[in-house]
Amino acid sequence: GLVSLAILLGAVLVLLVLLLGPVLYQADRYRVELRRDARVLQELRAIEAVRDEIEMVREAYQQRNLHDWMYASHNPDEVTLDVQRKVTGWLAGAEVQRITPVINRTGGEYVSVGVHVQFMAGLGQLVDFVRAIEQSRPLLMVESMRLTPQAQRRNRDGSEWPQVVSVQMTVQTYVLAGEE
């Protein structure tokens, strides 16, 4: 009697442990998942709290056409080629001696890309060229410039030809690094 009751009680206890083990394991997994879901929900609520502000910034960005100021492509080679095309077009009346691509990977968040150009032009052409760079979209900038005046010539009637300068200039922009 007593031994069979102890065996029965032991068997019930083993069965209970065998059945409760997976249930407890599953309950623990659910608790872990619920904690993870609570963190995600908290992050989503934080995003929801600033959603209107994000939307206002996006609209201001669009209204002010700030997207036109940066290149959509993050490939330095594509952007360099586009800068080279623009510079070549703007210098149509000048004597272009050399134009070489410049890509400066500094290891930071941005890569500076552009061209180094050497040309001879009149002062009016130079002013027009710098104005075209200044007004360009996407944004371009003159990183460096060196001007050297050339000897002025005289016409047969004694009047001087317009002043010509030799120009060495680096025109560049910036793109995000690491997204080629």
Description:
It is built from 3 helices and 4 strands, in the order ααββαββ. The chain has 180 residues and is an alpha+beta fold. Strands 1-2-4-3 form a 4-stranded antiparallel β-sheet. Strand 1 and strand 2 form a beta hairpin. The radius of gyration is 35 Å and the shape is rod-shaped.
Short description:
This protein is α+β, with helices and mostly antiparallel strands and 180 residues long. The protein contains 3 helices and 4 strands, in the order ααββαββ.
Order of helices and strands: HHEEHEE
Estimated helix fraction: 40-55%
Q: What is the tally of helical segments? A: 3
Largest sheet: 4 strands, antiparallel
Oligomer: single chain
Shape: rod-shaped
- Mean pLDDT score: 88
Could you tell me the radius of gyration in angstroms? 35 Å
Tell me the fraction of residues in β-strands, as a range.
25-35%
Strand order of the largest sheet: 1-2-4-3
Q: What separation lies between the terminal Cα atoms?
A: 81 Å
The poorly predicted ranges are none
Overall structural class, as computed from helix and strand content, comes to: alpha+beta
Tell me the number of strands: 4
Describe this protein with a few key phrases:
4 strands, 3 helices, four-stranded antiparallel sheet, 180 residues, alpha+beta, rod-shaped
Please render the helix and strand layout as text.
Elements: H1 2-63, H2 76-90, E1 95-105, E2 110-122, H3 123-135, E3 141-149, E4 164-176
Antiparallel strand pairs: 1-2, 2-4, 3-4
